[in-house]
Design a protein that fits this description.
It is a single chain. By secondary structure, the chain is an alpha/beta fold. It has one domain: Cytidine Deaminase, domain 2 (3-Layer(aba) Sandwich). It contains 8 helices and 6 strands; from the N terminus they run H-E-H-E-E-H-E-H-E-H-H-E-H-H. The chain has a 6-stranded mixed beta sheet. The chain starts with a helix and ends with a helix. The model has no long low-confidence stretch (mean pLDDT about 90). Bound molecules: 2-acetamido-2-deoxy-beta-D-glucopyranose (5 copies). One 2-acetamido-2-deoxy-beta-D-glucopyranose binds near residues 52, 55, 56 and 59.
């Protein structure tokens, strides 16, 4: 009996290893550096630049001009600390004028510059797939965001395309001849300002419902503190533990 199963498996292996359905290797999401991964000096630099766009976003959204789209503000910064350009989401003109695409287009036009190698892009919210791709095409060295897509969608009930920026970034290995990912993503910088002061809780029943309010379809066991799928108290962990105990005990008899 076993030799037939082995033969079938061997044939299946031979057939499956003959060629690939996939034209290239599936990319792992690229690493996202978090504030804890940075030196104190680098973190201070990014926090100051994040504060600058957060302040602009707060001013424009809630004080000066009351433009809801200004929650998404982005800047282009030279590593010497100079902010070259700052702009906001101009969704009132076109729904693809997000903070990032807008600041790249406006700054390129202003400086007659088509590539941003050697520069950093700051954004109050993690980039959507369109903007992440734009930042990659534009050649930035680093993108630094405040509030993540998962927080915007799962916790604040904002409509989002559910692909995190580092999933797109992982596929950036096709952009250069070396076949590596060159754009560094630094996430969750100054979220203690961006999440409560720039963004709102748009969830139904919070009194802030707007055109982008959605009912999130997040996994019921999702937890922002879950690391690599394991939390000592997660239901998965408990189920796995119980299952192993049941198997272990049943093997005793
Ligand atoms: C925000 O508004 C305050 C008060 O009007 C002003 O002092 C500050 O320069 C503004 N900041 C930005 C980045 O627009
Ligand atoms: C910083 O870089 C910008 C853009 O390249 C340049 O215009 C500016 O002079 C530089 N400032 C310093 C202090 O080096
Ligand atoms: C990508 O590869 C090039 C060429 O080998 C190298 O110079 C560069 O440092 C690499 N960049 C990263 C981020 O790995
Ligand atoms: C946010 O956190 C930073 C440290 O990461 C701190 O310097 C800053 O004072 C905090 N701001 C607020 C409004 O809590
Ligand atoms: C709206 O959102 C803010 C910020 O998230 C929150 O503090 C507030 O309770 C929400 N509801 C109302 C009615 O403002």
């Amino acid at each position: 009996m076993y030799k037939y199963i082995f033969a079938i498996l061997a044939v299946m292996f031979a057939v499956s290893s003959a060629c690939s359905n996939s034209p290239w290797k599936t990319a792992s999401p690229s690493v996202v550096k978090l504030p804890a991964d940075l030196s104190a000096a680098e973190l201070a630099f990014h926090e100051a630049k994040m504060m600058e766009i957060a302040q602009y976003a707060i001013n424009e959204t809630y004080h000066n001009n009351k433009i809801p789209n200004a929650i998404f503000t982005a800047s282009i910064v030279h590593p010497n600390g100079t902010t070259i350009c700052m702009d906001r989401n101009r969704g009132e003109d076109s729904s693809i004028r997000h903070g990032e695409t807008q600041v790249i287009l406006a700054c390129s036009e202003k400086f007659k510059k088509n590539t941003w190698k050697g520069y950093y892009l700051y954004t109050t919210g993690e980039s959507c797939p369109m903007c992440q791709a734009a930042i990659m095409w534009a050649g930035f060295d680093k993108v630094i965001y405040g509030t993540s897509v998962k927080t915007l969608y799962c916790e604040l009930c904002m409509s989002q395309i559910l692909v995190e920026s580092n999933f797109i970034n992982g596929y950036g290995y096709g952009l250069n001849d070396a076949g590596n990912v060159t754009l560094e993503i630094i996430g969750e910088v100054l979220t203690n300002v961006t999440t409560p002061q720039v963004f709102r809780n748009w969830c139904p029943g919070q009194g802030n419902e707007t055109f982008w309010t959605i009912h999130p379809k997040c996994n019921s066991d999702y937890s922002p503190s879950c690391v690599n799928g394991s939390s000592i108290l997660s239901t998965n962990f408990v189920f796995t533990f119980v299952a192993i105990m049941v198997i272990a005990i049943s093997m005793l008899f």
